[in-house]
Amino acid sequence: MREISMKTRTMEKQNVSDNRYKYLDRALARHQYRSDALIEVLHTTQELFGYISRELLIYIARSLKLPPSKVYGVATFYHFFSLEAKGKHTVTVCMGTACYVRGALNVQLAIERACNCSMGETTEDKKVSLQTARCVGSCGIAPVVIYDDDVAGYVIPEESAQHMRIWLEEQE
């Protein structure tokens, strides 16, 4: 526990120059540091930082006077929250019944081969994060893949693999 406290104190000193913490502090104040605002605070944190690090979990727990285990439990229960940094791009393959029946597994495998990593992971170069969703609600155009925020329907494996190759070849 002492190690966490030292890291957190160091992090809090670094926060002075990071404007994202100012916005997070405003969100905490807006919710009056109430523990029942945990999900809203986690959403704000995810939007500001792109993910919720261990240090941020502790920062939120202290601010809301909650045990870190409670904050961790909520953050890991909901699929929206990520505890690891994501890549520049995110690809989401819908694995709902309609998509699965219409070939989503083959699309998923093509994406994994093209990126050389598995769903739930990020490529080594941090360019692409791979994830699945239970259902994205676009069953009529199954199988569905979401490339960043763009929904694509009737996706075939070759098309999805090509999309990944384009992302992976992008220059910084």
Tell me what the structure shows:
Helix content is 51%, strand content 10%. The chain has helices at 2-14, 19-30, 38-49, 54-64, 68-77, 97-101, 104-115, 157-169; strands spanning 89-94, 128-133, 145-147, 150-152. Strands 2-1-3-4 form a four-stranded mixed sheet, with helices on one face. It has 172 residues and is α+β, with helices and mostly antiparallel strands. A hairpin with a 2-residue loop joins strand 3 (145-147) and strand 4 (150-152). It folds into two domains: 2-77; 89-169, Glutaredoxin (3-Layer(aba) Sandwich).
At the fourth CATH level, what is the homologous superfamily of the largest domain?
Glutaredoxin
Q: Mind telling me which CATH architecture of the largest domain this is? A: 3-Layer(aba) Sandwich
Indicate the overall shape.
elongated
Estimated radius of gyration:
19 Å
The CATH class of the largest domain is: Alpha Beta
Tell me the major beta sheet.
4 strands, mixed
Distance between the termini: 39 Å
Query: How are strands sequenced across the largest beta sheet?
Result: 2-1-3-4
Strand content: 5-15%
Compute the number of structural domains.
Answer: 2
Oligomer: single chain
Summed over residues and divided by their number, the pLDDT gives a mean of 90
Order of helices and strands: HHHHHEHHEEEH
Q: Please give the number of β-strands.
A: 4
CATH-derived topology of the largest domain: Glutaredoxin
Count of helical stretches: 8
Low-confidence spans: 1-10
The secondary structure category is alpha+beta
In percent, how helical is the residue content? 40-55%
